[in-house]
Amino acid sequence: MELFYLLSLSQIPGIGPISGKTLISHCGSAEAVFKEKKRVLEKIPGIGSMEAAAVRQESGAYAAEKEIKFIEQSGIRVLPYTSMEYPIRLKQILDSPLLLFVKGNTELNPMRTCGIVGTRKNTPEGALNTRNIVSGLKQHACHIISGLAFGIDIVAHKTAVEEQIPTVAVVAHGLDMVYPLRHKPVADKMLASPGAIISELFSGTALHPDLFPRRNRIVAGMSDAVLVIESMIRGGSMITAQIAHSYDRDVFAVPGKPGDKMSEGCNYLIKNLKAGLCENANDVARGMNWDIGCLKKTNVQTSMLFDLSPEEKLIMDCLKGKSKHFDELLLSTGLPMSRLTLMLLEMEMKQMVISLPGKMYKNIAFG
User: Fold this and answer.
1) Which tens digits make up the pLDDT trace of 105-152?
2) pTM of the model
3) Domain 2-62 coded CATH 1.10.150
4) How many CB atoms within 10 Å of residue 16?
5) CA-to-CA distance for 145 and 107, rounded, in angstroms?
6) How many helices (H) and strands (E) would you count in the chain?
7) Neighbours of 236 (CB within 10 A)
8) 103-291 CATH choice from 3.10.180.10, 3.40.50.450, 3.30.230.10, 3.60.120.10
9) What is the CATH number of domain 295-363?
10) DSSP-derived pairing of the beta strands 353-356 and 360-363
11) Which residues pair with 362 in a beta bridge?
12) Phi–psi pair at 190, nearest 5 degrees
């Protein structure tokens, strides 16, 4: 029942991801939003009388019922932003989607992710660079995220499938279709391998130019690093890079020859210090400190295990076996945010843990 109300809320005109989450936060659930009085809703910060009136009209109910039928028939998962399976990196973004529709079963919260974007009219050199970089990222256990578009996007997905690297396509339409249709064979292979296709849009949503920048923010939000491979000075790739920069994501770009139109965007990003120069996968790995995992733990004394404070032991126990996001540690340890932040900093200086991109932490002292 909560899913019905969540879908309904997402379809109300004037209620976007930010205001939708605000309403749920104040009311406790999507169902409670629809049962709350109008005069109470319009007093919620950021919600006015027009938005409150729109909620009371329940205009999204029909679309929600129709979408639930489609979801059930198509084997699609719906991940509300409150779900533990929802991409943690995306949760950090203010305008992250209220919910995501997901086809496929790949992990959406892996240790490392790289968004790869570029022109739709790539050169042979651009395709070769994409294949080499994606293949090189395999050794760093990095998942590949892109948009299933013509050009660099589809080369990145194809290479990931060939190399058996988990890859996620974020699309600017509902999951009732694949666009462009020519890429359906690749999409099918992604779903049959460790891959997924995700969208925030209902089935039947008509293609529209405005939806592609919305898609791009999800690519940027889910990525630890965004790599631009061939781009003109204007275009979707540059929008994604700018969004990633605003999200404090690391941006990299493959340089090109001066005067080459397909490299103008990449050269601009590098020249203006908005992107790190990338010639191969190792440049991304070094820039992201992904090669730290190869270092030996020679500086950590085994005797340290017996000298842990109660708080340090609590944190180390939580990190046993896998890396965790700061929010997960906050929930698991029960420590105040300020105390946990200080403890993690101290433990990093002692070489007990390392911080990874996306506010992730890993136990390097005792595995």
Assistant:
1) 888 999 899 999 999 999 999 999 999 999 999 999 999 999 999 999
2) 0.79
3) yes
4) 15
5) 12
6) 17, 12
7) 23
8) 3.40.50.450
9) 1.10.10.10
10) antiparallel
11) 354
12) -60, -45
